[in-house]
Amino acid sequence: MTKLCLLEIGNTDIDSGLEYLPISLREFDCMSAERKEAKVNLIAEELRKLGEIGENEKEKKVGEITEKQRDNLKEQVRQLQKKLEDLQIKENRIEILPENS
């Protein structure tokens, strides 16, 4: 996959794994016009918030990802994974205290 330049995952239920995208990737299609409930919309929405998906129709169909943008996405995924781990640790530490009779 080191030579992958274009990835089209539109209309799928793929909603994670951006951190594994190769540096060679230049175009990434994650639009889901046919399936509004597709999980890939989560990725598209995050990219839209970051301004990585353009506003004109052509840019909406294929968002171009630079190495810097991919690194930013990887960092965001790492931060979210850390938050999830912290929440899981906190959840495991919570004890149910006995009620005072």
Automatic annotation (TrEMBL):
Coiled coil region boundaries: 56-97
Provide this UniProt record's keywords sorted from A to Z. Coiled coil
Return the protein name. Answer: 10699_t:CDS:1
State the species of origin.
Funneliformis geosporum
